[in-house]
User: Fold this.
Amino acid sequence: MSNIVDINASLLNGRGRAALARCAALGVIEGGLDRQGPRPFPFRQSIRPSGLLVGFRCNEMLGSSPMRMRAAYGLARRANSGRHRTRTTSMDDQTAITSDSIAVDTASPNWGPDAPRGGKTVMGRILKEKATVPLFLAQTLIKSLRDVGYNHTTSALCEHVDNAIEHGATEVRVYFRQSSGSGDKKQTDVAVYDNGHGMSPTVLKVAMAFGGSMSYGNRHGIARFGMGMKTAALSMSPVLEVYSWQEREAIYSMTLDVDAIGKERANLVEMPDPSFLTALPSEIVTLFTKLMSYPTGRAEQDLAVDGESSVAELLGSHGTVVLMPDCDRLHYAKAKTLVDHAVKEMSRVYRRYIAKGLKLYVNNRLVEAFDPTYSMSNARHVRVLEDLGVSTKQSTLIHKYDVDVLLSEGSTETAPITVRIYRLPIEEWALLSRKTRRNDLHVFDGLTVSILRNDREVFAGPMTNLTTRHSVTNWYRIQIEFSGLLDEAFGIAANKQGVRLKNFVIEALKEKIGDDISTINDEIKRYQSQENAARAAGRVSTSETKAGETDRFQQNLMPDLSPEEEAQLDANLRGLVVNLRRDGETEEQAFDRVKRSRYIIVLKHDPYWPFYDVQHKFGRVIMTINTAHPFFEKLYDPLSKMSALPVDADTEEVTGLQEVNEGPIVALELLLLSLARTQSRLANADEDAARMLDNMRREWSETYRVQMN
Ligand SMILES: Nc1ncnc2c1ncn2[C@@H]1O[C@H](COP(=O)(O)OP(=O)(O)OP(=O)(O)O)[C@@H](O)[C@H]1O
Ligand SMILES: [Mg+2]
Assistant:
């Protein structure tokens, strides 16, 4: 980069001229405004006729040598100190100095107390000395990059696991080491070890730079942006330490320290050479040799080595350790919560790699693959179900599609994605205990859609624009796989957490799978309503029970059964049950219900019929409600749905039985059952009354129908 120093040459004294000449002789300043190579400073010729300005162009060396720049800067300053009329002075690092604007900016930055000190110095030079603004303000930028925005400590940590996998690791160990710090504060160090290829000292140096990557822009692996290791680490701790080796006992290490960089007074922050070590520092060695504070049970932790003497063997001839000491920004304070969350997420995100043999540990606990589609044959659900002796241990692939998706809106190029729809064995798994379904199989975690990019999961959760919100979505799963070529279409951000599917992708998916999703939705819904009906089978409802229990407190008692009727009761009730059986009820269940209850509500559909009918047979008061009448559609059914027992969205099980049984549907049913009782009793005693009541029923029903329609 070229730097120009402008000096009012006419104001220089002899000392100043001599200094500039030395500066030029050093080869760091190119005299004159032309672009010829360094040469003795041609003083007079460089004076502009109008403004007496002389420009000096630093040669390229400056950009890479702060020492020389500083020397040149000092010389230039001194050169101008003769008459104190330097207009622009800084030759600092990447800061170019313009010759055109002269006014000093009086604006002052309104920076917060945590702003980096060095950043303030650089800013001061820009405002007061008109230093050209560099593209990157190192001190402030690195501090801001701490807030690049990871959803969670685990998603940041995944960047390191990604790097490990990308570079050939077969074993990765994640550590949350918590110890009591001074006072009450607990210090948490986070570290990731892997046995991958490691980095050469030069690669390590590049890797520590923002944008530094060995696979920048490569769409076929996990890495792409040259940012992950740095941004992820800094999102947790102000310090990142990396140790990497490609030979036994030849470890290179580098540190990135946000606070130290914030104190640099120059904007150029150069990477120093990595330090060479023959062994890892003891604070890292103890990660391998000592138990973590969590998990608490010794048996739950599978230490990397038996003792310190085996550490060299573990490290072998290649590997990497990334350490984020004394983290100040973690999602949870407790090691337990951090570990549990990391295990849960990583077991899913890296399921394909784990299934292929990757050994991934979090605080010495081996992570088992968890497959939200339940289609893999070597993931946790298979083991759980095997232990329980369940015969169907995997979901069934019911559809597979290859869809070509545009790389971007308006593009002519496409790349293929694969979509698979799996159906869970609801018939069998719905019979498992609530605990197994919820805590062991995680069926109700809402992970209907899982999206994988180059085999690594980038999203798992509900996607309501592809599916529905209904609880049926627990019982089928959609898996979408795409390659990095479609990153723009899937909205993959540099931190690779989550997706933001472009509309044209959603439309393409809907067109391909929409109908099949509706079909499976309907199929599972149908199954669930059959199951619900079966659950209600044989049950006497709350209103039927209440009407029966209160019978003996009524002023007018219902006639008793005659001895003959009593003797024939079972046979008669069996006949009656034929018409009283509910959906999903066996004949035996229906008989048992009708035998136990003196009040019975039945639904029947008949467009030509009044809204209710009453029969009094074998000591049973039977109220038939016509589902074809507006009474049912507009009052009874909505009210019964309103009062329906709430279903736990997680477990699909009915809850809150007690409260709901007192709800308005019971009051309405009792209104009808009391009507039925009154009508039965009066009609029983008197034929005229029976006729009159029947007329009333028909006329009332028709009047109500007209009013309601
Ligand atoms: N565990 C590791 N083993 C070997 N090399 C690594 C490891 N971690 C990082 N590197 C090297 O450091 C470089 C920078 O890593 P970083 O995560 O910052 O960027 P990236 O992986 O290239 O891209 P992305 O931002 O998409 O993650 C990598 O390209 C890789 O060469
Ligand atoms: Mg990376």
